[in-house]
Specification:
elongated, transmembrane, 4 helices, membrane, Tubby Protein, Chain A
Length: 361
């Protein structure tokens, strides 16, 4: 009786450790493809690296433990006299060991060490396709890689929900390469008349002054019946901070493509990232940007980064919600003003992740 109880307890402990290791791999996969919001696993860069390294070390050791357990099982089955006899019991043991125990054994031996390598690409592909389900728009930030020349632009392509064809593209650049940057409309990728009014970008130029941490922007709307007759007016000003929390304090009056900026009432909005660590040295920007009220409480989600494309770390998908009640919606100042700086940081990340290891120094 005592031996049976001991074996049962060891069996339960073995099963429990396998379940715990499965959660270990699960949280690594989830954190790798969707690091926002931050959790205890990736609250700091050093913490995530430690989690990653220990997962591999323990996974190798535990995979060897599982190998020995299953080797013991098959040795016992082979040595059992009933398994070499005739009749239904021998057939049952043979079928069970081949079609149930063998796949389970391979799974439990392979997954502790190789599970993250196997699951992460599959999960990343699924998340890339479905991360922005439920959002009215999304953008793909396509940054320059290490081996591309400087004249290749860093661009943000905008898409309607459930569409794979971009409707317009913004790019970001700096005349002096340092203190003043411009995020502006580069081109329309589809006929302008086919773009829904709520998704048409009238805020077509955003300027970032990194000396004074100031942001400003101009809106362009038609002034006549022809698309060539337009009026451009200042419609955005405010300030921002990228150290610690990602923060914006903006006042904007972004109109629809049928009204003049002066006819739109200015609205002031505070925006802040949900977590302080929104970018690590070796990763793409990862944040959820939300409204911030006067008491310091976070409100609705304005945008959130999703994930980089599998096997192409230069592309970052961003889900765009916009501000409820704003005429410009997902292409309002609350979205476009922060998005330019996110694209700048995606450029830094893309160059790092595509730099050959022998050139990283």
């Amino acid at each position: 009786m005592g031996d049976t109880l001991c074996v049962l307890m060891l069996l339960l402990a073995w099963i429990g450790v396998n379940i715990a290791d499965g959660f270990w791999v699960y949280y690594y996969v989830v954190t790798s493809i969707d690091p926002d919001p931050r959790t205890a696993v990736d609250r700091t860069n050093s913490g995530f690296i430690a989690f990653y390294v220990m997962m591999w070390i323990f996974g190798f050791i535990w995979g060897c433990v599982n190998l020995m357990v299953w080797w013991g099982y098959y040795k016992a089955v082979h040595d059992e006299p009933s398994s070499r006899g005739l009749g239904g019991l021998r057939i049952f043991i043979g079928l069970f060991s081949t079609f149930i125990a063998l796949p389970l054994a391979l799974f439990m031996i392979i997954m502790p060490f190789f599970g993250a390598w196997i699951v992460t690409p599959l999960a990343a592909s699924h998340f890339w396709n479905h991360a922005c389900d439920g959002y009215p728009m999304y953008a793909i930030l396509d940054a320059r890689s290490y081996n591309q020349p400087d004249y290749v632009p860093n661009v943000a392509r905008f898409y309607l929900a459930s569409s794979t064809s971009s409707i317009f593209t913004y790019d970001i650049g700096s005349p002096d390469g340092a203190d003043f940057w411009f995020f502006h409309l580069r081109e329309f990728d589809t006929d302008q008349s086919s773009i829904p009014l709520d998704n048409y970008p009238t805020l077509q130029s955003v300027e970032y002054d990194f000396i004074n941490s100031a942001v400003s922007g101009n809106c362009t709307v038609p002034s006549g019946t022809s698309e060539d007759n337009t009026t451009t007016t200042a419609c955005l000003h405010g300030s921002f901070s990228t150290s610690g929390f990602f923060f914006f304090n903006i006042t904007s009056s972004v109109p629809l493509n049928t009204s003049s900026p002066s006819s739109t009432s200015p609205e002031s909005t505070l925006l802040r990232s949900q977590d302080k660590n929104w970018i690590f040295n070796n990763g793409a920007p990862a944040l959820t940007l939300r409204t911030l009220d006067s008491s310091g409480d976070l409100g609705q989600t304005i945008l959130r980064t999703a994930t980089t494309a599998y096997k192409d770390c230069t592309q970052l998908k961003v889900c765009l919600a916009g501000l409820d009640g704003s005429p410009a919606g997902a292409v309002g100042a609350e979205v476009l003003a922060p998005l330019g700086i996110i694209l700048m940081n995606q450029d830094n990340s893309a160059i790092q992740c595509t730099t050959p290891s022998d050139d990283s120094d």
